[in-house]
User: Which sequence fits this backbone?
């Protein structure tokens, strides 16, 4: 019973994550002036990319997004809605470019938190629960995978490489889930761990947490 | 017997698709001023990328292009021929840049049609024939996969996101195949369905079919 | 016993290749002005990307880099050391931009040679030893995979497409290993074959070996 509850919680989480990443992908596509179908496609790829990567890496082929149309359909409908809002009221959709960027960031952070958790959970469900490293690393990869695809296809440097505390937030969330699920009901552990990633990521953006960089010596380039 | 005929038809189709995508990849590489080996490599990656993606997603590892050298060899020879034509007669090869672009588009459309069909067929052959969504989605992914790799490696926004009715043509062709194969001989269904994708894609280019876009409010960026 | 020796030699080789690619990835990230975490991440992706691709293509899921933390940890520590050197003494790290590029090239060539060999060896170990094409192609893909990911994520045209005799050096090294391992102890065959790739690649850079290119007719673009 616990197992079936866990699966249900994981599925609900995945739907929410799919919606969040579809919004971020669709907004990104609108930003790049893609047409309606480009918006749908980038929304779908962003929303399902991380999960596909996760399933291929775990050897669970074909990936869930291929077997069950619900993920692709959800992502398509959500992307369509985002497009319609932006199409009908372009002034309200993007008062300033900063507003759009901030909203992409927020939805991205929701997806990041949820997929970090579902990635770790999928690794456990596949029988790798005793390998903490694998579960956490799987969580991180699932969380950042969709966004990397979105950014590469949009021809921009992937968020994961330039944004403050991005992959790190996913790692901490996946780790939190792996520890919390040992003593809490799975659905609660999921919710809390996804929240940890979301909060860390938002705090990093809000307070502009910076990691050190190498000072560039200008010569040539 | 029907099964073996289907496999044969699928293989022949795949050779044609391999040739078409190799031409488009090689032309793309020449366009980016890559040297002979870069041209061969981009031709091979474009021609085999979609099929590799398809096999990995279906769990048919190692992918056919790894087991049977014929795909890589075909793509290499075709790319070499394209290079020789362009090298010996650069004036004739590219009278105008538009000519090159149009030819890349035509070969790309042939590959698109064929891989949409072979992708759907491979999903059926792998026992997923009762899942129409999976077969069609698989067809689309196989069709656009090689071109996405080609475009990302050439550092340009993938055709699939910016060209009119590109992925949509692949979806319609894959769907047509899934329906036609129920009442027609497989080879005929393949030919017709690949033709559907090709014709839709060419019509979209010819008549410049447009999907709506969001009007950009200029501010900042 | 020979088998266990081979595995050991392959593992040692993979550690060395991991270190070399981590250095090249970290230097690349510093060059792109990424922060500490971006440097760690690009180092890890470059170092483990080729091996992950190899394992997914061979169907050996989850890939070794997911099961055994040693690869990710090694890559992370190496990337951290590169970052510290560059951070503490930026003047010494990059006297000129050419110095940095040359060092990235050297470490990349070491990784290229080693992963060409371990890729071919993994294909043999997976029971494909009688398919020479598969082993060599697998070697090439493993060797260039990490670098392609590094370059795409850094938003630059992949080295494999523009550098002289890059993939070709990997192909020759993988082929050399497949032939040498039939008559020499595996560890020695590995060492020699990886050396072949490294030497060819360095000679190509040193003497600026060029392959023909198509002369571009200027019009429009």
Assistant:
């Amino acid at each position: 019973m616990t197992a079936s509850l866990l699966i249900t919680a994981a599925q609900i989480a995945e739907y929410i994550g799919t919606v969040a990443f579809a919004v971020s992908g669709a907004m990104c596509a609108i930003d790049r002036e893609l047409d309606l179908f480009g918006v749908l496609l980038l929304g779908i790829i962003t929303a399902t990319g991380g999960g596909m990567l996760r399933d291929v890496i775990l050897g669970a082929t074909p990936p869930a997004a291929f077997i069950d149309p619900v993920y692709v359909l959800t992502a398509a409908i959500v992307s369509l809605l985002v497009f319609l809002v932006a199409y009908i009221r372009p002034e309200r959709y993007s008062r300033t470019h900063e507003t759009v960027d901030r909203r992409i960031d927020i939805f991205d952070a929701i997806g990041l938190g949820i997929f970090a958790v579902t990635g770790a959970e999928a690794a456990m469900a596949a029988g790798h629960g005793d390998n903490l490293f694998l579960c956490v690393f799987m969580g991180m990869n699932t969380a950042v995978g969709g966004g990397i695809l979105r950014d590469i296809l949009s021809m921009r440097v992937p968020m994961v490489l330039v944004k403050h505390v991005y992959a790190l937030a996913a790692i901490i969330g996946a780790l939190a889930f792996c520890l919390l699920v040992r003593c809490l009901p799975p659905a609660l552990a999921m919710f809390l761990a996804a929240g940890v990633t979301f909060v860390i990521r938002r705090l990093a953006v809000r307070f502009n947490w910076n990691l050190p960089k190498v000072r560039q010596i200008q010569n040539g380039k």
Q: What stands out?
A: The longest helix of chain B spans residues 97-128. Chain B has a mean pLDDT of 88.
